[in-house]
Specification:
This protein has helices at residues 2-41, 49-52, 56-81, 90-120, 126-137, 146-173, 178-209, 219-230, 239-260. The protein is an all-alpha fold.
Length: 275
Amino acid sequence: MSSIVEKKKGLFHDLVAGVISGTVEVCILQPTLYMKTASQSNLPLSWDPRVLYRGVETSILNMALMTGIQFPLVSVVEKFVVADHSAPTTTEKVTSSFIGGWISGIVCGPLELTMINQMANKGHSLISMSSQLVKQHGFSIMGRGVITASGREAIYTAGYIGLGPALVKKFQTEGYSRGQSAVAGAVIAGVVSSVISHPIDTIKTKMQRDVTGEVYKTIRQTAATIFKEGGLSAFYLGAPWRVGRTVCAVFIIGQCKDFLHLRHSGLKLFQCCSY
């Protein structure tokens, strides 16, 4: 019975750490998300905070939910991936993170559809924008872009939960300081995961911005249209903004989780722990 309680407590701790770290990340990095989306969707670039933070409430909800469910999801998946129930290897951790991230895409797809259209349409709240989308296109519109959202989240989660902490641990064992290891792990994991996943993110963004499907219909057709419009480079529109954001996000979320993580043996919120 005590082991079951500890497992439930551990999942709750992961949930809390994920929600808090996700919220902190968005409050700091929302402008980079707008600039990335604007670059992909032909929206005007702006340094006006009112524009940069348009749709921020949806973004906070999205990221808080995503990181909040991704940490416990990965922990659950690990129990099936790690056969002998020992400490997971790097490969097992990355694999578990990939699967957990894929599942979480079901949640972020509809929220990002709403947020992207909020960015393009001034004056809409989360409720009014989502209501308008459903009213005009039916409830099924909320599923637009979910598959690509899952693919992107799978790669992103494999980076910040799987690869990032593994690199930090590796660098520390090689004698680098905690700070040096954290920065190096964030840079490598952030660059790798964002570069690999950005083409999927571009397809998702264009499909969700074109809600009627006039130009971008299916995933395959959208990919073909993007390539026709600008070749391989067209898949990397807004990539510098996303790479920068992902590197910072891996670092911020990792440090927040490290700082806020609740130890199973004591309910001390602000207590540091190692990866």
